[in-house]
Amino acid sequence: MSNSLASEIARFATTDGIHQTAIPRLTLVRKSAPTEPLHGVHQPSVCVIAQGRKRVMMGDQVFVYDADNYLTVSVDVPIVGQVVSASEDEPYLCVRLDIDPAMLTELILDMRLPETEERRCECGIALARTTPELAGAFMRLVSLLASPDDITMLAPLAEREILYRLLRGPQSAKLRQIAIGDSRMRQINRAIAWLRSNYADPFSAETLAQEARMSLSSLHFHFKEVTGVSPLNYQKQLRLQEARRLILGDRLDAATAGHRVGYDSPSQFSREYSRLFGAPPRRDIERLRRSPGPLEEA
Q1: Residue 67 domain boundaries
Q2: What's the pLDDT tens digit per position in 33-91?
Q3: Integer Cα distance of 197 and 56 in angstroms
């Protein structure tokens, strides 16, 4: 089944890159060679590789997956992703579906899944084995790109089947946390949403805890459990990734970009930029401009 899914992805992703599609929330990825590590914030989604292999790093945790396993992301998490197996003859081919919380909630209700009292947080990333049924559902969704007039009516049915397969699989509890209004994961999501909206402002642990409706100690413990980093380091990564985009895309100088994202000290900005990306801003940007490609993981 993975070969069939690979053929469908290759059919519509004919060039290397990240391809947004006419189907809402569906993205196809093709790479004909291994990539450098790419930084990004991964949104809640499921990623199925049809061909090739990839490494994803979150904090100090490493996840390696291929056509035998799919990746589930249940919360916005900062990651470093790297395609490690790809070639011209056998390119890396992947399909990603962002999770629609409303559709997920509706399906949980329709399936009459028993409510759970579990409030324990888990890592925001997990791997599980790709079944023929799940790969087949993805293949049917991707194949709709050949008949645009059918997308409006049939894509939601295929997407619903994918979510059904996921809820029947080993990652059901993790996905259900996205939809449970009073879950610990929802509290962490509130903290993440606040950080993403206010990343350039001075960090306030007390304000963040109030937004999440958690105690300070609980916030720090569960936030790192889910995202792999502390709230402060999460904010730093958001700042530095945006500064990198401003320098490369908007051609701002490093000092201006650093100030734009909340750094008052250019030297501190340069130090933290080097620590995350492996080189100071000028050298990093020169390298990126010599090797054009996506800045962020998809």
Answers
A1: 2-179
A2: 999 899 999 999 999 999 999 999 998 899 999 999 999 998 899 999 999 999 999 99
A3: 25
pLDDT band at 294 (very low <50, low <70, confident <90, very high): low
Give the predicted TM-score (pTM) of the model.
0.88
Which residue matches tokens 């290397």? 16
* Residue at which a domain ends, from 159, 179, 199: 179
Number of Cβ within 10 Å of residue 189's Cβ equals 21
231 and 139 part of one domain: no
Following DSSP, what letter does each residue of 149-214 receive, concatenated? HHHHHHHHHHHHHHHHHHHTSTTHHHHHHHH-TTSHHHHHHHHHHHHHHSTTSPP-HHHHHHHHTS
Number of domains in the chain: 2
Kindly report, residue by residue over 209-264, the tens digit of the pLDDT: 999 999 999 999 999 999 999 999 999 999 999 999 999 889 999 999 999 999 99
What are 48's strand-pairing partners? 70, 95
Calpha distance 253→97 (Å, rounded): 36
Q: Are residues 166 and 196 in the same domain?
A: no
CATH number for position 259:
1.10.10.60
Domain limit, last residue, from 151, 179, 207: 179
